[in-house]
Amino acid sequence: MSKKLLAFIFAAIFCIAAISAQNLTDNKHQKAGQEYEKQAREAMDAGNYDDANKYAELSSEEYRKSHDYANDLKLKFRAANAINLAQSTITDVSNVKTTADFYAKEIAAAKVSLAEARKLYKAENWEESRAKANEALALLKDIRRVETEPKQKVSSNTVLPRYYIVMSRPSNTDCFWNISGMDGIYGDPTLWKNLWTGNREAMKDSNNPNLIYPGMVIEIPSLKGEVREGNYDPKKNYSAIKK
């Protein structure tokens, strides 16, 4: 075999090696490829072209295996990330009792899909596992919007919102104090502890009233038997609670 042809083979080996190195350089195939490459160079320098060709082919094969291994590992990582995201989303939406109750079917279906994703992951079916985890996420994508619950007829002339969805603002940030002072809530910020007490079980830290977050659904406890139904609408004018 000519020295020129061997140089071409080496160039092809380097290309495969570079692709593998971009993904994962620390695996047995990559290391074996590097060792065969070294032996091929030494044989070539010594004029043993047949040996150089043999080692070059072995090196090329090991680099291909390294590349395939790296791609497989990438699919594994993506599946793991999708599973973790689905699990954290399920945990997040389940932390708010009113939301969890209202979307019980969707959350239950998402848990089934996540369980299937875990089984597929254990069986090393990375792409199928990721698809199932994404299926769980799709079931939860709109879950933060709590709709009006079935109405119960209550004798009262005052109908106020039962839920408030925490919003993100650059100023006058939502907190129990500010929310309590809104018309339709209590109209009095000093009554904020009623909101905290009524939602402690749904909070990430029940002992810290400051840890509310955008998207959290707050249930507004009734103070004087007033009817509360549906979500708070900032565009609506609410009547005051009779004192």
Labels describing this entry:
single chain, 243 residues, mainly alpha, two-stranded parallel ribbon, 8 helices, 4% strand
* Protein structure class: mainly alpha
**Count of individual helical segments:** 8
Alpha-carbon Rg, integer: 31 Å
- N-to-C terminal Cα separation, in Å? 100 Å
What low-confidence regions span 5 or more consecutive residues with pLDDT below 50? 1-23, 147-157
- Biggest sheet: strand arrangement: 1-4
Q: Could you state the order of secondary-structure elements as H and E?
A: HHHHHHEEHHEE
Summarize this, please?
With 243 residues, the protein is mostly helical.
Outline the structure in words.
The chain has 243 residues and is mainly α. Helices cover 57% and strands 4% of the residues. The protein has eight helices and four strands. The chain has helices at 3-23, 28-45, 49-94, 97-102, 104-122, 126-140, 176-180, 192-199, and strands at 159-160, 163-165, 217-219, 227-228. Helix 1 packs antiparallel against helix 2. The relative contact order is 0.10.
Task: Lay out the secondary structure.
Blueprint: H1 3-23, H2 28-45, H3 49-94, H4 97-102, H5 104-122, H6 126-140, E1 159-160, E2 163-165, H7 176-180, H8 192-199, E3 217-219, E4 227-228
Parallel strand pairs: 1-4
Antiparallel strand pairs: 2-3
Helix pairs in contact: 1-2, 1-3, 2-3, 3-5, 3-6, 5-6
